Each structure stands twice: as C-alpha cells, then as structure tokens.
Amino acid sequence: MRLMKISNSKLHYFNPGHETAVCSGTAHYTPAAPVCKMMEDMELLPLWYGARGDYVWVDNAAKAACFLSSVPSALRPPVLPLSQETGRCATETKPLEVAPWGLSPQSIRFFEWLRHRGITLVIPPWKEAYTRLTARQTAAECLREVQGRLPETSSVVSPVFCSTPEEVRQFMSVYPPPCLLKMPYSCSGRGLHWIWTDRLETPTLRWMAGVLKKQGQVSIEPVLDKVCDFAMEFESDGDGQVVYRGLSIFETLPNGSFGGCLLGSEESLQNRLLNYVPETLLQNLRNAVTAVLTKTLGAVYRGCLGVDMLICRQGGAFAIHPLVELNLRYTMGLVAIQLNRRWMHPSTGGRFVVVCESSREAASASHLQMERLYPLQLENGKIKSGYFSLCPVTPETRYRAYILA
After folding, report:
1. Cβ distance 81 to 56 under 8 Å?
2. Which end of the chain has less Cβ packing within 10 Å, N or C?
3. Cis peptide before 178 (omega within 30 of 0)
4. Is-above-0.85 flag for pTM?
C-alpha cells in the first residue's frame, strides 16, 4: 500500500458532523448539542489513528492525562494530546499541519483562533469546490459514473433530487414505497426519513418542509433489501492521485445511524463479502471507484475519504450498491482499519463500537460492567481479547468508543 508523504506532523481535531457545517456556509456555525457532546466525549479518538509525532487537540488536558495514565504501557498511542497550555511549546521547532476529522469553514476558523494564540499551524485554504463535493448530488453523479464503468451494478436506482412534494410523489408513482428520503448534506445515518405508505403523511411533509427550507432539495431512492454494509477507504493527495487505504464492514442501527465496524484483516473482511459476490467484482469495483474519484476530486481535495457501499438481495440474487455515500473526511471505517493494523493481535477479530448511551449513568454502568465481564488480555503487546475503551468514560460521558475483541 502506497502512503501519501506528509512533511509535517499533524494536529488532529475531532469535529464530527462537518457536512452540516459545510452546508451552513459560515465560519460561525454552531453544531447541534448532540454533536457538541460527541466532540467532548470522543475528542481523544485521533490518538488511535494518528501517526507517531502527531498531536490531538484536547479541551480537557487533565482528563486526557488521567485517561492515558490508565492505558496499559503496551497500548500507549504514539500521538500526544495538545492543549492551550502546551500548544505553543509543541510548535516552537516545526509547524503542525492541521488534520480535522472534516474540513469546513468553521474548523478553519478554529485553527486560525489557535494560531492567533501562538500555535504555529499550517492551515489549508477553504475551496468552494468542497461545498459541491460534500453534497449528496456529487455522490449521485459518481454513482452513475461507476455504474457506467461497471454494468454489473447498473440495477441499483440512482437517487433523484426533488424540490417539491409533488416531485417526490412522481418518484413514488414509478418506484412504490418503501422509499428513503435524505438531506443533501448529512452523513452517518443522519438526515434520513423513511416512507412506508403510498401517500405522503403529515410527519413526512413536515420533515420535507424543514429540509427544503434549509437545504433546498431532498433526495429519494427505493429502500433496498440490504444484507451487508461496507466501505472502501481512500486518500487523495490533491495533485491527481487517489490511493486505496483499505476495506471496512460496518453495522447500522435501525434508524440508519452508525453502530460499529468489524475488526479483522483485509483478507478476513473480504472473505465475508465473498459469501455474496465474486472477488473479481470487488476488484473491478475498487478500480472503478478509484478512477471516478481521481477524475472527480483527485486534483482538488487533499485528505482521507470513504465510499459507503452495500450488498442487497435483488431478484433472487445478490447485488452491490457501489456508492451509497461519499464522505470527504476521516471515517470510522478508517479508524477501524488503523485499530486492526496497530493494536489487534493478528489472530483476533472483534468490533469497534461507537454508541450513544441513554444517560450518563448508563454509560458509566455499561463501561464498568464490560470491564468486569470482558477483562482485557494482551499478547505480544496486542489486544488478544476483552474490552478496551478508546476514550475516557467519566460520570459526564454519553458517547463511548471502544473495542470488544
């Protein structure tokens, strides 16, 4: 696997939900309260995917230090926390290249705020092309191009973008429900609304009205008989090269939101998919998606990206939806790939899980129970079995990220 060459160490910053920040078009965007809570609880997640010599920005340096002191020495990450107290000292000799979870005008404004406080940073400019590339319309365009290169996937219906309820009804007259509505700017199972009946009920009309007011359009597509979600992860150098980084298989909750990723070698994950589709199709899919990404964004976008896909039942056989979402950011799938390569014992599988607990009390109770039921076992400095929390769990925690091997 060929990796991009980065001259500077990175400053990672966990800012999920950046698609809505991009959609807002303003550097003064304020994330919704659940997103802010996720940022707070999981700010240390980049510890586990950053490279040696990198840093991760933390608001709570004391909590980070306490957490790292509890991590077994064999699992200590090579990434260091950086805060307002330590930031200036860390960048006295060499500037840090910023690496947010997702780039947006809001995240750039945050890094500029840090730079004004004496932290030497390399901050990329915002490109208006990123706004277009982040929208689902670009994913739909890429889907059609992939299908043109890979006719075996042409049976999947491409999303249609509608500006009025009447246009939605027209789609439903051709493709009867169940159908799935999506916001043009959303990700990871957010911004979805299912239509189960052949008429637009009042809750659906209200949901559409809100989206149309904020984003101008909704997309609609038939609901597929899904059997497996998976993704291919890539990296673009911004100079015309897009490189494949690995495969991920993930799970979604009933509402469509992300639940977790399987951990295992590339070969073991691919073998799961081979239960449904031939290896040649997966290889051709990877080549087609790489070519389309190179053409669409290879000379514009620099950074990590993921392409969500799925396998479904269709006409008594299995078919691939080759491009469900295009995520121009770090992804949980990429985190899972790095977790497996760096921290998991070669003979061990498991799951990387992100969960929002029902309450702070539930988060703490579940964490303590899993520590008791699944004691962590290491072999040769790698996780062999058990439970390992990737972020601190305190009395205030709602969002947890962990490994269960």
Report:
1. yes
2. N
3. yes
4. yes
Question: pLDDT (tens digit, 9 = 90+) per residue, 229-240?
Answer: 999 999 999 999
**Residue-wise DSSP of 149-183:** H-GGGTTSPPPEEESSHHHHHHHHHHSPSPEEEE-
**Distances from the Cα of 282 to the Cα of 243, 253, 322, 363, angstroms:** 16, 25, 10, 38
Phi-psi region of 248 (alpha: psi -120 to 50; beta: other; left: phi over 0): beta
Torsion angle (degrees, nearest 10) of CA 176, 179, 183, 184? -60
Q: 356: closest CA among 263, 264, 255, 262?
A: 255
d(CA 151, CA 54): 43
Distance between CA atoms of residues 322 and 403, nearest Å: 28
Any bridge partners for residue 250, and if so which? 229, 261
For residue 260, the SS3 value is strand
Task: Tell me the two tokens of residue 312.
Answer: 């479904």
Q: Please, what is the average pLDDT of the chain? A: 94
Copy the structure tokens of residue 357.
């607990």
Given CA atoms 146, 148, 151, 155 in this order, what sign does their dihedral have? positive
> How far is Cα 195 from Cα 217, in angstroms, rounded to an integer?
16
In the structure, what pLDDT confidence band is assigned to residue 4 with cuts at 50, 70 and 90? very low
Contacts 24+ apart (CB under 8 A), 293-296: 293/142, 293/234, 293/236, 293/242, 294/240, 294/241, 294/242, 295/145, 296/133, 296/138, 296/141, 296/142, 296/145
How far is Cα of residue 396 from the mean position of the Cα atoms in its chain?
A: 24
Angle, helix 279-297 to helix 136-149, in steps of 10 degrees: 130
What span, in angstroms and rounded, lies between the C-alpha atoms of 9 and 120?
Answer: 12
How far does Cα 166 stand from its chain's mean position? 33
Strand 242-252 to strand 225-237: parallel, antiparallel, or no bridges (unpaired)? antiparallel
Quick one: tokens of 26? 């303003």
Question: In this predicted model, what pLDDT tens digit does every residue of 246-281 receive, in sequence order?
Answer: 999 999 988 888 889 999 999 999 999 999 999 999
Cα 103-42-96 angle, rounded to 5 deg: 45
| 320, β-bridge pairs | 311
Residue 3 has pLDDT above 50, yes or no: no
How far is residue 69's CA from residue 44's CA, in Å, rounded to a whole number? 13
